[in-house]
Specification:
Helix content: under 10%
Strand content: 25-35%
Shape: globular
Radius of gyration: 18 Å
């Protein structure tokens, strides 16, 4: 990896795996531009208008993806959750077969050219739900990403969903202006939450590589684990594991970045997938899968705060 010398475990993994990735290319790599979100707080109007799509752009996560550098193996990258015609679910893939190896990107969309740390990744859909939670007096913007499979070899499964949830609180009573207060990240079947002052965040584009905690800027940095897509608040390049049982040690870094763009249409209401809610197997998001007896809004509002 670029961030640190390869660990002995990664050398061992590389020695038992020599698989060539098959790439599925999507649209051209976008350039990162300054965003139309100069104010820190977000209005209640923007949070409620047209399903909160504009607000989703204002607080969008900066997603970060890792690469296994010894053999050039790439991650399984997010893509659309519908089929090529848009009239059914993405069929997904079973992922790599045979011996375990550091090649989870097989049969997945490729992130784009690798040009060192913070290479721009290809755009993908962020499936969103924006909901006002009365009990906690918060607004919550939930972003879900779809992958055709997770893991590698027998550790993987068809279809995968993971999410990040931005929590906002009102600046003052009746102001209807809402500031970023916390971030909740999915990690397989569980979630972890931190206050906004305890995470890495950026305004973009000039501070793209800033890893300082506590800056309280607009866009949270979310590190996606290399093998099984759990989301983390920080990168970790010293240990590489496959098993979700050791999920805290899952490899994650910043070889590619991507952030949704409202003008490009990257934010999609996840209600557009409701017709396919029983077609993604036993993966752990969106919310009609993990919370079949609850509405999506209720499930998101029950996520524990830090």
């Amino acid at each position: 990896m670029y961030a640190s010398a390869p660990s002995p475990r990664m050398f061992a993994l590389a020695a038992v795996c020599n698989i060539i990735c098959s790439y599925v290319h999507s649209s051209a790599v976008p350039r990162l531009t300054a965003r139309d979100d100069a104010v820190t707080s977000i209005s209640g109007f923007d949070l409620s208008f047209e399903g909160g799509v504009r607000a989703a752009g204002y607080a969008a996560p900066l997603w970060l993806f890792a690469r296994e550098e010894i053999n050039g193996h790439d991650p399984c990258y997010p893509e659309g959750a519908t089929n090529a015609k848009g009239d059914g679910p993405n069929p997904g893939t079973d992922g790599p077969k045979g011996p375990l190896g550091p090649n989870p990107g097989k049969d997945c969309t490729h992130p784009g050219p690798a040009k060192g740390l913070y290479s721009p990744g290809r755009p993908f859909s962020n499936y969103i739900t924006v909901v006002k939670c009365g009990d906690s007096q918060t607004w919550r913007i939930n972003y879900s990403l779809y992958y055709v499979h997770d893991g590698a070899g027998s550790q993987g499964h068809k279809h995968d969903w993971e999410s990040a949830t931005v929590v906002l609180r009102e600046d003052s009573p009746s102001s209807d202006m809402w500031h970023r207060d916390a971030l909740i990240l999915s990690q397989h079947s569980g979630r972890k939450a931190k206050s906004w002052g305890d995470i890495e965040s950026v305004n973009l584009p000039d501070d793209l590589k800033d890893e300082n905690v506590g800056a309280k800027k607009r866009h949270p940095k979310v590190y996606v684990s290399f093998f099984k897509h759990a989301n983390f608040f920080e990168k970790k390049t010293a240990v590489e594991v496959y098993s979700a049982a050791s999920q805290g040690d899952e490899y994650r870094s910043d070889d590619w970045y991507a952030i949704g763009d409202t003008n490009r249409g990257d934010f999609v209401q996840d209600s557009t997938l409701d017709a396919y809610k029983d077609k993604y197997g036993d993966t752990t998001a969106p919310y009609w899968i993990t919370h079949k007896r609850k509405s999506k809004d209720k499930a998101i509002c029950e996520y524990e705060l830090p």
